[in-house]
Design a protein that fits this description.
InterPro entries: Znf_RING/FYVE/PHD. The protein is 29% helix and 14% strand. By secondary structure, it is an alpha/beta fold. It folds into two domains: 2-106 and 125-219; 241-306, Herpes Virus-1 (2-Layer Sandwich). The longest helix has 24 residues, at 83-106. The radius of gyration is 24 Å and the shape is elongated. It binds zinc ion (3 copies).
Length: 307
């Protein structure tokens, strides 16, 4: 099936080759804007939702749009009425195709809010990252950093102001011809996360209708419901942090989860045994001590996961 091949192609390029996946992403945007513009100017009544359309990647690497007309009682309510709806439909379709590609790779449906990267953002939060940020994100004092590539996802960014589909198609086709489709790379630290496995990097290939509004945004911690590719655990919202250093939050440092009490602590605060048993559990089970356990914060001892 051509549809499935297209999804797999896009998904696999995302995994294997960042530059190629960016080019393929813009190719999709260019072809879809051109295709949707054509359909909307042909006097064809377009159904409303992106679920009524399919997108194929043909043998010449062209993305083609097909309509699956809605049937039954819904059909009457689903007609396209104005230019604003075509813009909404176009964005919905781009988002749908990029989600297909993500699903091929991860089999997860995770909703991402696209990063907004304009000049109003604090540079401390969002920093230009000219080289691959992956190497920077791995603490140099850590030997367990995995050698697997980062988790990459497509994220669609809908711009607030509707744009002309013809202009989008023409501009992107020209950029693709001239091979001018490079986009910024930004690094973002997810400081609120407790689950901070060392070496984790998620690159969100955030695409919009213009290359200037697009960027690869790197994150250094997984989000809730995601399967962390470092520890292979599903990240859940009830994780507890407690460390012998008495800090209440992990900050930006890598953390590790104790197999016994399920509490996360700083990787480099130690001691945590090779079996991933934290200092507190080692103490209570009579294993050798390595730390002044009297300084352990009460927050850890009274945390719900230890009762
Ligand atoms: Zn993890
Ligand atoms: Zn600590
Ligand atoms: Zn423990």
């Amino acid at each position: 099936m051509r549809t499935r091949n297209g999804r797999q192609r896009q998904g696999h390029s995302l995994r294997d080759d960042l530059d190629q996946s960016i080019v393929l992403g813009f190719k999709m945007i260019s072809d879809l804007s051109s295709g949707m513009d054509y359909l909307s100017t042909q006097g064809i009544t377009l159904p409303r939702g992106p679920e009524n359309f399919d997108v194929f990647l043909d043998v010449n690497d062209r993305f083609l749009v097909s309509i699956n007309p809605p049937t039954g009682a819904n059909a009457a309510h689903q007609e396209q009425d104005d230019a604003g709806s075509v813009w909404t439909l176009f964005n919905g379709l781009c988002q749908k195709v990029l989600r297909w590609a993500n699903r091929v790779l991860y089999d997860e449906d995770i909703e991402r809010t696209p990063a907004v990267f304009d000049s109003s953002l604090s540079p401390a939060i969002l920093q230009p990252s000219p080289v691959a940020p992956r190497d920077q994100a791995i603490p140099s004092n850590h030997v367990e950093a995995p050698s697997v590539p980062p988790r990459r996802e497509f994220v669609w960014r809908t711009m607030d102001v509707p744009q002309s589909l013809v202009t989008i198609a023409t501009r992107l086709a020209r950029d693709l011809d001239l091979r001018r489709v490079s986009i910024n790379r930004l690094a973002r630290s997810d400081g609120g996360s407790i689950h901070r496995c060392p070496g984790y990097v998620r690159e969100e290939v955030t695409l919009a209708t213009r290359t200037a509004d697009s960027a690869v945004v790197s994150h250094d911690a997984p989000t809730v419901q995601e399967v962390c590719y470092v520890c292979h655990e599903v990240v859940n919202s009830g994780e507890v942090f407690g460390c012998i250093c008495s800090q209440k939050e992990p900050g930006l440092r890598p953390t590790v989860k104790c197999r016994s009490c399920k509490t996360w602590s700083h990787m480099d605060c130690g001691p945590i045994s090779n079996e991933r048993i934290c200092a507190i559990c080692s103490e209570s089970s009579g294993l050798p001590r390595g730390h002044p356990l009297k300084t352990i914060s009460l927050m850890v001892l009274s945390s719900p996961s230890r009762t």
